[in-house]
């Protein structure tokens, strides 16, 4: 089940009954939260617990893709815990009914998830012999990294620190510009949108494009063409996210440095429309069909099914409103303003709820987080989410690590021979900070204590 | 409306529409939260805002009884804001239906109240010209003091510090012993319970006791006798809470140092039962009928109707589970163990909900709060809630002020000629800390900044 780097560990899959609603008392239901525990390197007397704050997907998949925790377990004598986020994977509060309506979805919030984590940790420390006084460090990537940071902010009595990898905690209204980025061979992509427009202006062209992209469902309407374009745009963003230095399988199975592979097909923005689209199709194929097993491409999917797209769509329509906009000039995408009213209407149509775009900054502090401590914000400069992250030290205890050659949370991935120096350096710094927190907690280093 | 010390100020009563449920998106209702603003001493360009985190009662009553804020307004050039807690006073989310069932009561939690405060402050800073960069300090007494402390812990980006007066944040399960205290003339009170038992063992005695206490509703059943006893017990606790050095009217209109007045009647624990009860009745009368206007005493009331007893009863049955127990030996009360199961059953009967006694320590940190900063915990040694408070400095920025001659949040009351030195000292320290926080915030004192 796990890649070779982790298969030497024994891991236990467990379930914990937890409240559906931590913030009210009328609904007295519970559900089974899934979590994974690996403790073969754990120092039994109050050794550290590294706790992965699960995000929007199957926790076993995050477990597989967070080799960093496995790599450092022995050195830190750590127990590893991976907690699944409610409404994802198998941790569904209402089973098959979980996504049916806004009533069943009402308990899908980051605050409820953080409370799940807090209660799970308290229960582990109470029930695992030797763990009562174990320090706990939160670790997460992407939305999981946001949760790790927020967990330390809101529950500093439960976690002594947090590693928030590629966590765009500032990608919210009025905090950072809403721009979007992608591969560096942008000129061809920039040219492609108008080429698609020109080709799809005729019925013959529409059919030609469907075939050129090997679409499973040929384009039939204007809506299909809009969907094709946003599928392409998301593909470019995803490719930039997983631009790892070695062959990997996170969102999709891909070669090493996939952007470089993709850009090989996108060298000349001045080709004829058909040639340009044929090249684009080749490029897209790197992402969707590197294994060569796909007979056709499906525009309704842009990544692994381990991600919970329903849950995330709801979260994006409630709390996790992360404005995105494009200009077509400073970026490679078609110009699109951030239109909150339209976004809100779309959310209401889809989920029966309206987003509250300012709630996350209100509850988690926005840019004003300097009174917190012991959080590492690591970000890869190749990552499209980079701009929404914390990329400067805020205080001595609230630090930023930038990884120039890193894509989306490369530092959380398992050691690899092709890792660039910058990620090795980042991981070493991360371990150093964690050791400092543990020392502070254990009172070993008196000079570090208050 | 206000006592002389505050009547010179102009105060505005305002309403703010706020969400009934901040932690979910299915219920999209709002309600009107009441708050009071006084700004005549406020320095318009980013002067400080002192924000009273309203607790379980009518906000205008807390406003009247928090003269300290009025007394320091000029010195600190502060705006004063008093925010009413949801489900109290006139801030009822569902009007008359607010207390009808567990469904309507579902949004009565401390977390929702803190979110109300956060959103109110953000809205004030946005809408009041000159307030955009105002530092805000939370101030509260009793449960309001707990909220002030928790507000700083959870929303340090919104308040730069908190004065938590007589805030028993540790009066929760497993944190402090559950004992209860009261007046110092305890021997007579200790003797009184058995005297009541002996007298009420005959019908004639029951009638005699009803008359001795001038009860509005004569005792008719065993239950009535139990109610009488808990009414008495609560009276002693309340008396100790408001043992102020001057004539006051907080829970009831009372003379200066009411405990001393009460104890005058309780000097000899070895009197005959009837004499003892007659003395007890005189003592009780100091509390319930100091004004001399009451024709009879009502065992269903123990304090001003400004307190919201329904709301607090529900909160005590959900989050605010503060175990109380008595031994009859180390204290003056009848022995009573803390019986959580019975308590929970009673809550279920009354409100249809069951308490979660460990939730408050989980969410607000219990005794492990040292990573927070800028909170003053002040406690009066005469106060029965003293033992549940923070009475030692935790860090340089999380400090305790003990007021040996103080009852329940005496420091929050208006200046008075009869104030003991210890409360004058406490208030001076409090102002000193607040000035330090403001300086830190304004960056005036570079040496205090990170």
TrEMBL record, chains A, B:
> Where does the record say this protein resides?
Lysosome
In the record, biological process GO terms are:
proteolysis
Q: What top-level branch of life does the organism fall under?
A: Eukaryota
Which coarse location class applies to the principal site listed for this UniProt protein?
other
Q: Which GO terms describe its cellular component?
A: lysosome
Arranged from A to Z, the UniProt key words for this protein are: Carboxypeptidase, Disulfide bond, Glycoprotein, Hydrolase, Lysosome, Protease, Signal, Zymogen
What EC number(s) does its UniProt record assign? 3.4.16.2
Catalysed reaction(s) here are: Cleavage of a -Pro-|-Xaa bond to release a C-terminal amino acid
One example of the protein's molecular function in GO is: serine-type carboxypeptidase activity
Q: What class of enzyme is it?
A: hydrolase
Q: How does it assemble?
A: Homodimer.
Q: Which family does it belong to?
A: Belongs to the peptidase S28 family.
What does the UniProt function comment say about this protein?
Answer: Cleaves C-terminal amino acids linked to proline in peptides such as angiotensin II, III and des-Arg9-bradykinin. This cleavage occurs at acidic pH, but enzymatic activity is retained with some substrates at neutral pH.
Record protein name field: Lysosomal Pro-X carboxypeptidase
């Amino acid at each position: 089940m796990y890649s070779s780097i982790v298969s030497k560990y024994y891991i236990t899959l467990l379930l914990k009954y937890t409240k559906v609603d931590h913030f009210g008392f009328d609904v007295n239901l519970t559900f089974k939260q899934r979590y994974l525990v690996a403790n073969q390197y754990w120092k039994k007397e109050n050794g550290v617990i590294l706790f992965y704050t699960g995000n929007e997907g199957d926790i076993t998949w995050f477990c597989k893709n967070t080799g960093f925790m496995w790599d450092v377990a022995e050195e830190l004598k750590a127990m590893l815990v991976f907690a699944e986020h409610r409404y994802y994977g198998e941790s569904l509060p209402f089973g098959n009914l979980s996504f049916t309506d806004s009533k069943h979805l009402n308990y899908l919030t980051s605050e409820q998830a953080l409370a799940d984590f807090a209660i799970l940790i308290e229960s582990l420390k109470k029930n695992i012999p030797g763990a009562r006084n174990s320090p706990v460090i939160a670790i997460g990537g992407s939305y999981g990294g946001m949760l790790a940071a927020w967990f330390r902010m809101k529950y500093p009595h439960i976690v002594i620190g947090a590693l928030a990898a590629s966590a765009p905690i500032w990608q919210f209204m009025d905090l950072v510009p809403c721009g979007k980025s992608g591969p560096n061979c942008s000129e061809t992509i920039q040219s492609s949108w108008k080429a698609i427009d020109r080709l799809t202006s005729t019925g013959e062209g529409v059919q030609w494009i469907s075939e050129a992209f090997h679409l499973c469902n040929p384009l039939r309407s204007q809506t299909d063409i809009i969907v094709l374009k946003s599928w392409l745009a998301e593909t470019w963003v995803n490719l930039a996210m997983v631009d790892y230095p070695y062959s990997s399988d996170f969102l999709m199975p891909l070669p090493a440095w996939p952007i470089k592979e993709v850009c090989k097909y996108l060298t000349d923005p001045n080709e004829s429309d058909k040639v340009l689209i044929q090249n684009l199709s080749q490029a897209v194929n790197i992402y969707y069909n590197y294994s060569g097993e796909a007979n056709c491409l499906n525009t309704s999917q842009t990544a692994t099914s381990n991600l919970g797209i329903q849950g995330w769509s709801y979260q994006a329509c409630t709390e996790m409103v992360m404005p995105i906009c494009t200009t077509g000039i400073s970026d490679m995408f078609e110009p699109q303003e951030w239109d909150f009213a339209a976004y809100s209407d779309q959310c209401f149509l889809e989920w029966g709820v309206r987003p509250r775009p300012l709630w996350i900054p209100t509850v988690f502090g926005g840019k004003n987080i300097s009174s917190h401590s012991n959080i590492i914000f690591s970000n890869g400069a190749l990552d499209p989410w980079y701009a929404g992250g914390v990329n400067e030290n805020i205080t001595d205890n609230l630090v930023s690590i930038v990884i120039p050659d890193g894509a989306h949370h490369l530092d959380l991935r398992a050691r690899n021979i092709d890792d660039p120096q910058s990620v090795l350096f980042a991981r070493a710094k991360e371990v150093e900070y964690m050791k400092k927190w543990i020392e502070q907690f254990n009172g070993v280093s008196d000079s570090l204590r208050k």
